[in-house]
Design goal:
alpha+beta
Length: 565
């Protein structure tokens, strides 16, 4: 089975599962609305029978206060409403209104009816809000983990990814995502307000005209049906959006670079989804409603990861746990079992034996650490504890405070190798130890820093992200070349080796800096005497020239000469 066909099939199945879950939720919501509508109808009919049938009730009669017995009966109901409101976290505003009503000595007959009818509306919309909130949280979580499962099983690498927590999900689902700045809860309560207004209007008209309850019941029922339909559309649209958002976040975590739009092609597929079907976009272009679903209300399109290579679905697949240990993701492994292992901290109990059918060089090397090979170092006030990466081609360590993705390791490891090749550095026994750290450990704001005394090359983990790297080195020589920063630092190392050959071990940093800067100044002066404009090297070089750090200027010159613009 070709790659594209596999991903389309799996992610369409995921979308269909999400769709069916949402349909079930809509049925449940409709049932709640129907129950509330039935109670409202009963309240109106009972009220009409009690007050109007034999009394030819007018609006004036409707505004008469309840007698003592009637008021007592109503307050029993109101107290129950307040209790339910507090227990179920209904609108705080509504609970306050009920408390005020309970404290009043006079309530009109019409007010009493409105209170009873409105309570049913509050219950219906309160249940809707809670139900939708839980539903889209479940959709987000399920879509995220299901996506991780399918990618790991399909690609064959069990890369680490960020586990979800309830606080994160809460933050995500409550964030407005449409241009009007409203989240799902705002839309729900907005629909409720419309229904409440209709209740008041219909009941008032019933009393003003002296008509029977049928018209009022019909108007309210119609509005309830509209609210029910709106709720259904809201559930489907919010589910589609947050399912798509969860997939996007998981794609990013697992270093998916491109994705494909997959439409559910049947007689109900919209023109826009038909048009978008099969289009491939970069992850940097991901925008819900524009380059990713949902494209419209009730959208059933989904996204799938897009890779150029092909694989055989039934091959054994290598995966890795968070400690870098190899395990299989069996072809018949269920999502339930996979999720159980995720929840248990990626602890797989299977015996490991790498299949000959798999070429690991085709995969990103996992961040496999040797916890017994560790060293400590200091950068300023920061103590760094670093572990050796076993399966990197170069001598690379990673700080204990850094969560390094396989793709980031691949980019860094490859760039080091290519930089050494560019500089024609071969089989040197004294190459610097590379230590990957984060920005807080780097402290200086630099992307990389070579320490000549320790022979350590510290690099910020962000250097493993191409887009961030190019942005950060925009003021350097050869800013569009991903090797620019690496080559710069290895030239510093080469200068240090020249000093060691002529003067011995570097012990005093001030002495070494005086030597290298004096030597670099001579080189720069020679270039200028030949007519070379050093101001055109780079913005970084210009700054360092003014600071008298001529070693940086001459290093930048050599980077530019080697890599070009």
């Amino acid at each position: 089975m070709k790659n594209s066909e596999y991903w389309k099939k799996r992610f369409v199945e995921m979308e269909e599962a999400t769709h069916q879950t949402s349909v079930k939720k809509i049925f449940n919501i409709q049932e709640q609305f129907d129950k509330s509508a039935k109670v409202i109808n009963e309240k109106i009919n009972s009220w009409y029978q009690r007050y109007a049938e034999n009394n030819n009730m007018s609006m004036l009669d409707a505004k008469k206060s309840l007698n003592a017995k009637e008021l007592k009966e109503l307050k029993w109901d109101v107290e129950e409403y307040i209790k339910k409101g507090r227990e179920n976290a209904f609108s705080g505003e509504w609970v306050k209104e009920l408390e005020n009503a309970s404290a009043r000595a006079h309530i009109s007959r019409l007010e009493a009816l409105e209170l009873q009818c409105r309570q049913q509306a509050e219950v219906a919309f309160g249940n809707l809000n809670d139900g939708v909130s839980k539903h889209i949280k479940d959709v987000y979580k399920e879509s995220y983990y299901r996506t991780a499962y399918e990618i790991q099983k399909g690609v064959g690498v069990g890369s680490n990814f960020a586990a979800l927590n309830d606080r994160l999900i809460e933050k995500v689902v409550n964030k407005p995502w449409l241009a009007d700045g409203k989240n799902f809860s705002d839309r729900i309560w907005g629909n409720k307000t419309q229904l409440i207004n209709q209740l008041h209007t219909s009941l008032s008209q019933m009393c003003i005209t002296g008509a029977g309850p049928d018209k009022a019941i019909s108007q309210i029922a119609s509005k309830m049906n509209v609210s029910k339909a709106n709720a259904g559309r809201l559930v489907m649209t919010e589910s589609a959006y947050f399912s798509s958002t969860a997939q996007k976040e998981c794609f990013k975590e697992l270093d998916v670079e491109r994705y494909e739009i997959v439409a559910t092609l049947d007689g109900h597929t919209s023109d826009i989804c038909q048009e978008m079907d099969g289009k491939v976009f970069k992850m940097s272009e991901y925008e819900e409603g524009v380059t990713a679903p949902p494209f419209h209300v009730n959208c059933r399109s989904c996204t799938a990861p897009y890779f150029d290579d092909e694989f055989t679905k039934d091959e054994q697949r290598i995966a890795r746990d968070e400690d870098g240990n190899t395990y299989y993701v069996p072809a018949d492994m269920t999502y339930k079992n996979w999720k159980k292992n995720v929840d248990n901290g990626f602890k797989f109990e299977q015996e490991i034996k790498i299949s000959k059918n798999i070429n690991e060089e085709q995969l990103f090397r996992p961040v496999n650490l040797d916890k017994n090979n560790v060293f400590e170092s200091n950068r300023g006030d920061v103590n760094i504890l670093a572990y050796k990466i076993i399966n990197a081609k170069n001598n690379i360590y990673v700080s204990n405070g850094v969560r390094l993705k396989p793709k980031e390791l691949h980019k860094i490891d490859l760039s080091i190798t290519q930089s050494l090749e560019k500089l024609k550095i071969v089989n040197s026994d004294n190459l610097p130890t590379v230590v990957i750290i984060d920005s807080s450990e780097m402290q200086t704001g630099a992307m990389a820093s070579y320490n000549a005394i320790k022979n350590k090359l510290y690099i910020d983990k962000e250097i493993g992200n191409k887009e961030k790297l190019l942005e950060l080195q925009r003021d350097a020589a050869s800013p569009k070349n991903v090797l620019s920063t690496y080559v710069h630092e290895y030239i510093h190392w080469m200068d240090a080796q020249s000093y060691i050959i002529g003067h011995g071990e570097i012990i005093d940093s001030k002495e070494y800096l005086y030597w290298i800067r004096h030597k670099s100044k001579k080189k720069i002066d020679k270039l200028m005497n030949k007519g070379y404009n050093i101001n055109k090297i780079s913005n970084y070089a210009n700054i360092k020239n003014k600071e008298g750090k001529y070693d940086e200027v001459y290093t930048e010159y050599r980077v530019k000469k080697l890599l070009g613009e």
